[in-house]
Amino acid sequence: MTGAAALVARAQGAGAGKTRGVPMAAISIEVFSDFQCPACKMLHEQTLRQLVVDYVDRGKVYLRHREFPLPGHAFSRPAAQLATAAAKIGRYDRVADVLFARQDYWSRDGQVEAAVATVLSADEMKKVKQLALTPEVRNEIEADMREGEAQKLSQTPTMIITHKGRNYPIAGQVNYNILRRLLDQLLGQ
Amino acid sequence: MQILKKIWQPAGRVVLAAVFVYAAWLKLKQPYLLFALSIDAYGLLPEWAVIGLARTLPWLELAIGLALLAPWKRVLRPALALATVVLGGFFAVMVFTYARGLSIDCGCFGLGDKLGPLSLLRDGALVALAGVLCWKSRD
Question: What backbone phi and psi angles, to 5 degrees, belong to A160?
Fold first, then answer.
């Protein structure tokens, strides 16, 4: 796929609604995570929020979320389905935020829908529940997982930073100061 | 058997040298700040030390690797001693971090090299090899 075609595919393809920023940004970051993973919660709340402010919303980084529910987490797949469904109605960020914020609760009692319902209207929740069960949503999650396996992911979270055709995978929690220096170095090249 | 006795030390040094040079190459071919993130994940050093180590350790690994191939004993002995100390230090940190239950990449050979029983076994074997070669180099 040519560079321009890849950019268009990036903006329009599966994953739309789970992306943020300018598709043509110099750096793209794909974040593979599991909503039931504590390290993913820390990355989401401590690193990605700041990354969005400093780089994504300034057009320097294009961010894409990908689901990688781990087999050991009983409720991470329903969470991924609901979040991916919410992306279809433009509510991914809101749902992702509440899933991570309330992770301690729903990961124990399995009440994932109840957590999501706190940030959606009744109408939105009805749509999301319906969409979550569609093959489209299931296939999107499967595609994310296949991509993660192709990248030889061994854990979540894993960020894949892409710059000038080169991939730089980073697994686990990330020191934001060092990440910032890395991004500035890449942007300066 | 006699042949084995003659070649095991040089062969062992070549193996160690290859490991050090390969590890250095993997780190030097990417931005040093990526390696800094791996070091930081251990949660043992302040940021300034993490950055310093990320900048210098790959070059030290390369130097040790090349020195292990030197034909002169006055280069070889210190190289073996340094290799043993460096590998021993890595191994101790890895054991301590694994005991803490942290799920991180080892950082030894790039992404996917998870800290766990296999990587501990591998690095433990390398420490043992370096230690024995260092001991025998005194003969």
Answer: -110, 110
